[in-house]
Amino acid sequence: MDSILEALYRGQLHPDATIVPSNSEYWSLSKQIGTMTEKWRKELSDEMFRELEEYSDLCVSLNSLHVEAAFIRGFKLGANMINEVLSRRDELVTNCATGIPLY
Fold it and tell me: Which Pfam family, any one, appears in the UniProt record (predicted)?
């Protein structure tokens, strides 16, 4: 198996394509959206429904940009936390018997 960095470099890493939320509310909301979409497809004119789909596509694009920014911010926060922990090794808990830091 390739390392994560090799897979990322080769374009083989797509975590966003495999995310399936485990929150039960996700599936409930997804079903509601499907039901409403079908209702509007039947009730609206073709032109009005196309406009609704365009609006929906814009909302999805906007949300995707927000999720991307949140991912980047969270990743940087996690990396900074690791950096902080590793840079302060002297503050780590020490073994009471030996006085040696526990890494």
Answer: DUF6809
Q: Note the pTM of the prediction, 2 decimals.
A: 0.66
State the Rg of the chain over Cα.
24
How far apart, in whole angstroms, are the C-alpha atoms of residue 34 and residue 19? 19
Residue 36 CA to residue 46 CA, distance in Å, equals 16
Taking the CA atoms of 78, 84, 86 and 92 in sequence, report the sign of the dihedral they define. Answer: negative
What secondary structure letter does DSSP report for 44? S
Tell me if 2 sits within 8 A of 10, measured CB to CB.
yes
Question: Contact 90/101 with Cβ under 8 angstroms?
Answer: yes
Q: How far is CA 48 from CA 32, 54, 81, 96, in A?
A: 20, 10, 49, 72
- Structure confidence by residue, pLDDT tens digits, 8-41: 889 888 888 888 888 999 999 999 999 999 999 9
Kindly state the tokens that stand for 2.
């390739």
